[in-house]
Amino acid sequence: MHVGAALLRPGYPFSSWPWRALAYLATTVPVAGVLSAGMLIVGAPLIAAVNAVRQQGRPISLPLALFLTVGALTMVALAPLVSVAVCAVERWRLGIVDARPLPRPPWRGVWARYTTAAAWREVAYTVWLGSVVPVAYWIFALITLLDLMLVASPWTAGHADGVVVWWTTIDTPRQAVPYAILGGLLAPLLWYGVGALAAAQGAMARWLLDQPVDGAALREVTRSRARLVDAYESERRRIERDVHDGAQPRLTSLALQLSLARLDVPEESPAAKPLAVAHEQAKGLMVMLRQIVHGIRPQSLTDLGLAGAVRELANEATIPVTVHADVERPLPELIETTAYFVVSESLGNVARHARATRAQVRLVAEPGRLVVEVSDDGRGGADPALGSGLTGLADRVAAAGGRLLLASPPGGPTLVRVELPCRP
């Protein structure tokens, strides 16, 4: 939670967040003040020299030029080192208005303070804190002072020759009453202004002080995940082929031999009962093995394609399921398999949890992607945090390079939408 999100909540003015924002701004003043004073040592003479050149045309004197040059070089040389302490304090202070952790980068030596992008991002934040932040605070303080003047105008108008409020002069307390009312109405906006100013400063701190994502490392992680998925799919197909072509025919032959042996053994024989038990176990093992092969890659997906296999799932569902399929071009095997299991798992969740009376499956092959939608008219309230089914499904979709979107308000309906990349 952070002050930016708290600003959008109805109870913000009565929560602790405005006070936390005020504490954050108050503790910023000494830090920004010291930085601003240090920058003015060089900045003020530089501005004065530039104005003299522009207005009077006089060249900058040699001592002043030397002072400005040495001062600027000194500031540039010291900024990466000074920013270490400043940003360490700022990371700690950010916790006042932002509960999200902001890790501190490890110390990599003095040379790294001048050669790494992260160090110069800290320098940029330090400069911003000593230059832009004081100006923003002065503007906000001026607005606050003007509002206080409006509120206090009925009491000050009677004890002075005239009180100037914006564009008019107030001579009597009665004339000041409307302005006091306006100031009272604007006061709550200042309370929000405190939070907005703290949120803006905190967002800048997080943007400049957070560690940037390594794009090259992220691309390598994506490529390695794709390689792992491809290797997994290849191994999965090999296991399916070995089970289907090797173990399953042998088990079928064993069950057939046991069936023939039962015909040759009299029922009163001591071997009849163990033989019957062995025959039933062999048939049960055949069913289990068929289910295992079906779980690796359903045979209906190979024989009928994605649309046909999904219609077969719909026919086996315990509630009426309507299928709308617009998939004409062939799809990659990984995408087909992922889409099939999305529909299978979603319909299974509908049957187990949704208390729905009907469901609908939609398959659309759009340019560059396959969209799978499963909706129902059940009670809704599906939450990935309450079970591993939706989380596992989202992980499976992510492994294929897609994304899963869930809409399930309490009372329903529920919609599961999956978008899978599908290059032509």
UniProtKB/TrEMBL annotation:
Keywords: ATP-binding, Kinase, Membrane, Nucleotide-binding, Phosphoprotein, Transferase, Transmembrane, Transmembrane helix, Two-component regulatory system. One of its GO terms (molecular function) is kinase activity. It is an enzyme of class 2 (transferase). It holds the Pfam family Sensor. Residues 334-424 form the Histidine kinase/HSP90-like ATPase domain. Its EC number is 2.7.13.3. This is histidine kinase.
